[in-house]
Amino acid sequence: MPRLPFRTKRPFVWVSFHLIFVPTVWPCRFRACWRRAKTPTSNGSGIPVAAGQTDAQTEELAEAFDHLVDLNAVSADQAAARIRADDVDVLVDLAGHTRGGRLDIFARRPAPVQAHYLGYGSTVSADYIPWLITDGTHTPPALADYCSEALAYLPHTFMAAGRIEVPENTATRAEEGLPETGVVYASFNATYKLDPTAFGAWMNILAAVPDSVLWLRAAGDDVQDRLRDAAARQGVEGARLVFAARQDRLAHLARHQLADICLDAFGHTGGVTTLDALLAGVPVLTIAGDAQSARTGASILTALGTPEWIYDDVAGYTAAAIALGTEPEALRRAKETLRRQRDAAPLFDAGVLAAHLNTAFRKMYDMAAHGTPPTTFDVGSEIS
Fold first, then answer.
1. How far apart are CA 269 and CA 287, in angstroms?
2. Nearest-angstrom CA–CA distance, 175 and 143
3. Which one, of 157, 162, 72, lies nearest residue 118 by Cα?
4. Stretch (H or E) spanning 298
5. For residue 25, which phi and psi values (nearest 5 degrees)?
6. Concatenated DSSP letters for 335-369?
7. What is each CA distance from 228 to 222, 238, 314, 340, in whole angstroms?
8. What is the mean pLDDT of the chain?
């Protein structure tokens, strides 16, 4: 790898983002991290390249950057030429192989350092993206062997999470279709994350906890009918599945407070879904699976400092959910633990994450400047 000239007056152009916006809420958290990371010797560009539209999230993020370059309508060659002309040092992809992604721009190698972070979360398996930003829980050694990239291990979690003030809930259980009494289990993960193993575990939990219900994200009537039929086949009355209609961001956060316990999905665990529940004060149970996509919940809960909510198998997860649903004192202690850890743990500290990302990007650039091939490193060991 050729050596790069060191920056003197401005040693590092902090990062240029490839932003693919989807209807989730992580951009507001990432924006908080970015604002915390800016220094007098760093700047950044936002480069939205989604499918031809600018949305409210784009506009909100634009306020955090020195300038925003819209490459929606240009070809990959034109986009790469613009990035080179801007003399970008580090180009970060936040989309990977998701809908609307523009890996074709990265394939032109317009920046000396190119990395993937956050949005796809797993290995991209492309030689033109030699870096993956992750953490040790999300990508343990057994999974690192399957990654094509060198890994930059963040000390806590790769998820971007900032503290958001959750409004006081004004909705009632009746207004949400929930019973006035009984334990409310919730899982607001998208329906594509549901699988027979997780659903079967949830039905076993409901069967063991009298008068409990499962609060799910609303889907089409046909999907909801099939889920209720599936519950009935497992001996659980379909009416014990309650579906939450779509609401705006803050109202949805607030109504979480009607839930008692959140149950994570299995094969593709929750990211923003889990963060929302924790912000609202609802404990989350998860399984640390055998793929990166199955370990996001474990990554989040590790950074929260609640490893006792992470399980190795379905049996442990199910038993814990039943215990919390049948032992009010255990549930009270879990919620108290969450309130304490939410304020003290690094999970929701945007400044800490920003500092770690800044260190990671600088280390990557220093390797490139010295002609050193990308080599896995721990960000924590680089912090003086």
1. 8
2. 44
3. 157
4. helix 296-304
5. -110, 5
6. HHHHHHHHHHSGGG-HHHHHHHHHHHHHHHHHHHH
7. 10, 4, 22, 37
8. 86
Which residues is 244 bridged to in the sheet? 217
Tokens of 313: 């198998």
Q: Which of helix, strand or coil describes residue 99?
A: coil
Q: How far apart are CA 142 and CA 196, in angstroms?
A: 26
Query: Do 137 and 288 meet the contact criterion of CB atoms below 8 Å apart?
Result: yes
Range in 34-43, 186-195, 307-316 the model is least confident about: 34-43
Which among 88, 87, 95, 19 is positioned nearest to 59, based on CA atoms?
Answer: 19
Banded model confidence at residue 71, pLDDT cuts 50, 70, 90: confident
Count of CB atoms within 10 A of residue 383's CB?
11
Whole-angstrom Cα distance, residue 79 to residue 88?
A: 12
Strand partners, 262: 186, 284
**3-class SS of residue 244:** strand
pLDDT in tens, 315-339: 999 999 999 999 999 999 999 999 9
Please give the pLDDT value at position 88.
Answer: 84
User: Who has greater pLDDT, 8 or 196?
Assistant: 196
CA 29, distance to chain mean position in Å, is 10
Token readout for 251 is: 């109202």
| Backbone φ, ψ for residue 19 (5° rounding) | -105, 120
Q: Which pLDDT belongs to residue 10?
A: 36
- The predicted pLDDT at position 22 comes to 32
Looking at residue 39, its pLDDT comes to 53
Model pTM? 0.90
Cβ atoms of residues 52 and 102 within 8 Å: no
Q: Which two tokens stand for residue 155?
A: 């000390």
Q: Considering only CA atoms, which of 27, 140, 38 is closest in space to residue 94? A: 27
Q: Tell me phi and psi for residue 209, to 5 degrees.
A: -120, 100
Whether the Cβ atoms of residue 91 and residue 83 lie closer than 8 Å to each other: yes
| Whole-number Å distance between alpha carbons of 244 and 252 | 9
Pairing of strands 284-287, 310-311: parallel
Strand partners, 133: 117, 152
The position carrying tokens 């004060």 is: 281
C-alpha–C-alpha distance, residues 32 and 38, integer Å: 11
Sign of CA dihedral 322, 328, 333, 338: positive
Which residue type, as a one-letter code, is found at position 54? Answer: T
